[in-house]
Design a protein that fits this description.
Elements lengths: L1 E10 L2 E11 L3 E6 L5 H7 L8 E6 L2 E2 L4 H7 E4 L12 H11 L4 H14 L15 H13 L5 E5 L7 H12 L5 E4 L11 E6 L2 E6 L1 H13 L1
Length: about 220
């Protein structure tokens, strides 16, 4: 479970998040809201990329402020732009980076890399230069680089935004089939229709916390004001 208790986040004098109190245990949780509403900052709080200015964030009882490294091992984070995550020039090297960095045995690194390349459909591209990948292939590579670390949970910050319709559907289907619980920031309201819970952010607060059938109409009305 992820818990946020009286969380505030400021950047200088600007308060981006205000008094957030949440417990997140559902399998699929979407985060929606206007640009600048605090969604991305909220997402980064969940794996310790950002720390609260006030309050407490815990993941399965682990405090992000005190044990950020342990939290990041449990919570994989996928950015909107895969180029921000791809660090090596060849697909296989990029996927292997995380396990090697953790100094796992060579055979375990090879096993994990082979398995995740197959799952993501990238096995045929394992020797491909990463700069030659399509947008959809890059996003799958970013996912592979996170999933190869076998995180218990995933947080994703608008992973579909830069993709065309075909690749959005492909990545969305892949995400939906994952066993790990997901928290995803998104503007794709159709994709989240069957999800367990939707958090609507507005001006740094949770304006609505409900199932999609209630939260999405509320958000549409909010955006029409």
């Amino acid at each position: 479970m992820i818990e946020l208790t009286h969380v505030h986040r400021r950047y200088g004098a600007v308060e981006v998040l205000r008094d957030i109190d949440l417990r997140i245990a559902e399998r699929r949780v979407a985060v929606i809201g206007a640009n600048g509403s605090g969604k991305s900052t909220f997402a980064r709080l969940l794996n310790g990329l950002v720390l609260p200015s006030e309050g407490l964030v815990t993941v399965d009882g682990i405090d992000t402020r005190r044990q950020a490294a342990a939290v990041r091992r449990r919570v994989g984070f996928v950015f909107q732009n895969p180029d921000h995550q791809i660090v090596f020039p060849v697909v296989e090297e990029d996927v292997a980076f995380g396990p090697k960095n953790q100094k796992l045995p060579k055979d375990e690194v090879a096993r994990r890399v082979d398995a995740i390349l197959e799952r993501t459909g990238l096995a045929r591209l394992r020797d491909r230069p990463t700069h030659l990948l399509s947008g959809g292939e890059k996003q799958m590579l970013a996912l592979a680089g996170v999933l190869v670390m076998e995180p218990a949970r995933l947080v994703l910050d608008e992973p579909l935004t830069l993709l065309d319709l075909r690749n959005r559907r492909r990545v969305a289907a892949f995400l939906d089939a994952l066993a790990q619980p997901l928290v995803m920031v998104t503007h794709d309201l159709d994709m989240i229709a069957g999800w367990d819970r939707v958090l609507v952010f507005d001006e740094g607060r949770v304006a609505m916390d409900a199932v999609p059938a209630e939260a999405v109409p509320f958000y549409r009305e909010l955006m029409s004001r």
